[in-house]
Design goal:
Layout lengths: L6 H63 L4 H6 L8 H21 L5 E6 L4 E4 L22 E3 L2 E8 L12 E8 H15 L4 E4 L3 E4 L5 H12 L5 E8 L2 E9 L6 E7 H4 L1 H47 L14 H40 L3 H16 L3 H18 L6 E3 H19 L2 E6 L8 E3 L4 H12 L6 E10 L2 E8 L6 H12 L8 H14 L4 E6 L5 E7 L6
Parallel strand pairs: 12-14
Antiparallel strand pairs: 1-2, 1-5, 3-4, 4-5, 6-7, 6-10, 8-9, 9-10, 11-13, 14-15, 15-17, 16-17
Membrane topology: Multi-pass membrane protein
Keywords: Cell membrane, Kinase, Membrane, Phosphoprotein, Transferase, Transmembrane, Transmembrane helix
GO molecular function: kinase activity
């Protein structure tokens, strides 16, 4: 299939395939680059968020650990001595020591937390909150305490008891430790994380909402519905589109607080350089496509169209139309090629016309030669016949021979027209046969040609060479009487004149040789009469016209003269 396409189509297909291949490879490469970068962004966001979560969890773990170990401090044990009940000074002194240790812990801790110790049996309270008076209320710890950190009034609170089994019934505890820290500490960490990692982290709880950094953006409020509608796991991430911008949201759930550490990244903003590069490439491809179309159009107009004209011209030239000429207005290499083609076609046409005219002249010369070479012995025999008949005082035979011989030579010596009607040819043949009948006296003939073909034209002297051969080579060598039949037929515009004789006849090999000789060039060993007739018929009426040889039912040879009259209809 590809081999049938012309050069221009192949070049156009090659350009299209090349553009498609480049576009496909770049699109695939761009998608892979975007995928890798998105994957790296997501991993980086998760790692940053994980680092932030570990920092928060570490501080909370320290607070929880201190809350659990503070009950084992010797000062706490001394503060709860029963004998200090009647010694207020010692108990106050022990309480001051406890408070001093808690302040030292706060000073050493990264977070400043509020530590409050409740002594249910003593109904006493010690707290690091100097600005608040915290009385002991009996109904404050009637409900079981939470095992995890709780959120209330912008602070996180965690309780522990001594013994730890008293968490479900705080009224039986010797000591209840309450540690709380404000959300301000988390905001400071969020600010620090945003400053170091250039992210925008925040904390989220489905029931309590958001805890954001100090530079809270309006985007957080837009992300909140997406977080509330999403089925959050222990950690993960999802994509969401806000105000036409796509974000990737990562989250990790705090094991201590129950809140989610959340961070989000605007994907399109980070991928903007790649997107700009992609758009620039597509714009370049569009320009390249337009330029390719212009190049192909120029190539089509400048090369393909002249080539097609040249191909059509050579095809017409190969079919024999030598009048073809090519027109090309552009001034380029094809102008010179077309000019040379026109010169070549003109010269070939002139050469063909010269050859054609030469053939016509040669055929006319052959005809003239044939006319001039009419068997002189025939004329001599006729004259001797007239002489003998005159001596015998047979005036009728002399008149008949003289009249037929005169009409015969009048016809064959006419040269003003190479064509004659069947009627004229038959009249000449009748004269010739009458002369031969007078000479031989043992030959008779019949002519039966339909009137429909009498006015059709054939080359002059078409019948005479055939009849002459029939008499000389067929009838004269035989001693008995001879017969010649001439008849015609017309079928589907194909005309046939048939000459049959009762002469010696020919073998199959001789007939085949006769047919073969009609197609060979004329040489010295061949008779030119029948060959000339066959060649002239083929030249005028086509290759299907000419002479054919067969065995005759009369015993001799049957010659069919066949032609399709395309000159006189």
């Amino acid at each position: 299939m590809l081999n049938r396409l012309n050069v221009f189509t192949k070049i156009a297909l090659l350009v299209v395939i090349l553009l498609i291949l480049v576009l496909f490879l770049y699109t695939y490469s761009n998608r892979e680059s975007v995928r890798v970068i998105e994957h790296e962004i997501q991993n980086n966001t998760k790692n940053q968020l994980s680092t932030f979560a570990e920092s928060v969890e570490s501080n909370i773990y320290q607070l929880s650990l201190y809350g659990m170990s503070i009950g084992q401090d010797s000062s706490i044990q001394e503060y709860q001595r029963p004998d200090y009940k009647d010694i207020p000074y010692e108990r106050t002194k022990a309480g001051s020591a406890i408070l001093e240790k808690m302040n030292l812990y706060n000073a050493a801790s990264k977070w400043h937390s509020t530590i409050t110790l409740y002594f249910p049996r003593m109904e006493k309270v010690i707290s690091t909150d100097y600005y608040a008076y915290i009385p002991y209320r009996e109904n404050e710890f009637t409900e079981p305490l939470s095992q995890s950190w709780t959120y209330n009034d912008n602070q996180f609170i965690w309780h522990t008891t001594d013994p730890t089994t008293a968490m479900s019934n705080p009224s039986k505890a010797k000591l209840i430790t309450k540690i709380s820290f404000p959300v301000h500490h988390l905001k400071l960490l969020l600010n620090q994380n945003k400053l170091n990692n250039k992210g925008d982290p925040f904390m989220f709880h489905p029931d309590f909402g958001l805890i954001s950094n100090s530079t809270e953006k309006s985007t957080l409020k837009s992300i909140l519905p997406s977080l509330q509608s999403a089925k959050l796991q222990a950690r993960g991430g999802f994509r969401t589109t806000l105000d036409g911008t796509e974000y990737y949201v990562s989250y990790i759930q705090s094991k201590s607080l129950g809140w989610y550490y959340v961070d989000y990244v605007p994907m399109q903003q980070i991928l903007k350089p790649i997107t700009s590069s992609r758009n620039l490439f597509y714009a370049s491809i569009a320009v390249l496509i337009v330029m390719s179309i212009l190049v192909l159009y120029t190539l089509f107009r400048s090369v393909q169209v002249p080539l097609l004209q040249l191909v059509r011209g050579t095809n017409r030239l190969s079919t024999g139309d030598f009048s073809v000429r090519l027109n090309h207005t552009a001034h380029n290499e094809f102008s010179l090629l077309f000019a040379r083609f026109n010169i070549m076609a003109q010269r070939i046409q002139e050469l063909i016309e010269n050859v054609y005219e030469e053939k016509l002249r040669r055929r006319e010369a052959t005809l003239k030669q044939l006319q001039s070479q009419i068997n002189p012995h025939f004329l001599y025999n006729c004259l001797f016949y007239i002489k003998n008949m005159a001596r015998m005082k047979n005036e009728k035979a002399v008149v008949a021979m003289a009249l037929n011989l005169g009409e015969y030579y009048r016809y064959i010596t006419r040269s003003e027209n190479d064509m004659a009607t069947i009627r004229e040819e038959l009249a000449m043949v009748k004269n010739y046969l009458e002369i031969q009948s007078l000479r031989l006296e043992r030959m008779h003939f019949t002519i039966d040609v339909p009137h429909a073909i009498l006015d059709k034209t054939v080359p002059r002297l078409t019948l005479q060479p055939i009849i002459e051969n029939a008499i000389i080579h067929g009838l004269e060598p035989r001693a008995e009487n001879g017969e010649i039949r001439i008849y015609g037929d017309c079928k589907d515009d194909v005309y046939t004149l048939t000459v049959e004789d009762s002469g010696l006849g020919m073998s199959d090999k001789q007939l085949d040789q006769m047919k073969y000789d009609l197609l060979k060039p004329l040489d010295e060993n061949m008779g030119c009469g029948t060959w000339n007739v066959h060649q002239r018929l083929s030249f005028l009426y086509g290759e299907e016209a000419g002479l054919t040889y067969h065995h005759s039912s009369l015993g001799g040879v049957k010659v069919d003269i066949i032609w399709h009259d395309n000159t006189n209809k």
